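Memo to structure team: turn this sequence into structure tokens by end of day. - J.P.
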Amino acid sequence: MIIKTPSRIHMALIDLNGSYGRRDGGIGLTIEKPNFILESETCKKGVSIDFDKNIEDIEIKNQCLLKIKDSAEKIISHFNLDSGFHFNVKEAFLTHSGLGSGTQISLATAKLICEYNGISVSGVELGKILGRGGTSGVGIYSFDYGGLIIDGGHDINEKPEFLPSSASKASPPNLIGRYEFPNEWEILVAIPQSNTIMGENEVNIFQEYCPVPKKDVEKLSHLIFMNLVPFLLEKNIKSMGNVINEIQKIGFKKVEVSLQQEKIKNTMNKMKEFGAYGVGMSSFGPAVYGILDKENQDVFKLTKEFIGEEGIVFKTNAQNHGFELKK
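Reply from structure team:
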């Protein structure tokens, strides 16, 4: 059995103020590549993991080993299963790149085990078992449904502190919006070589910079629900792009961008200068994204020349469906 997952761009956390009784809330876009592809078969006992020869990066291997083993053990224990599993990682993508690799590895592993055992369970339920989605549900709903995702965050009584997903024990949030993204639009992704903010540093940033100003949350909510989504539905790429540019200057996204190395900020500025319709940073980076159509294809070539050997640049499309499973 083989599962293939998409990746995701995390566009923003909506409410890191909390004075209206909720916090978090995420908006993001499911993208076709990079993918995580995992093959599995049952065995008598334990969890074993192999890698295809094309996967050589030590950090990628280490993350896969950690996430697959942890997820498999949690699912086997939760459902009190007898058999073991052997996994073969056929394709994987950069760790800590801002594209959500950890969630996709964890959910893919759990889904394969459940399918083998005839257990019908959603990504949200798997997220609860695995401890994923404690801040944003974008990765979980990208796994299940694809498209442009908006989740409703958490009641402050369930989640009393401002914390990233890696440190939050809250349940995955509810899905409040899922929208098809035009197939004719392309997503340009640039990942400059850069230090990544994660772990304890990420927790400290949430503690230091939150709550963000209430007026920023109000403005961001208005931009998302009264501008970005309507412009998306109208297929107005330029106006939607302007909203993406504006989001980078508001609330917690402004904090995330401000703390980046200059090469990330320079990449964002250059992509805008080259003509991308909207340029943003995914999560805490280092992945930067821009929206393209047939009118501004030169942006890809110019961005690739600008990054050179100091990073990765590729084009992809949005994915309007979730994981793919072959039995």
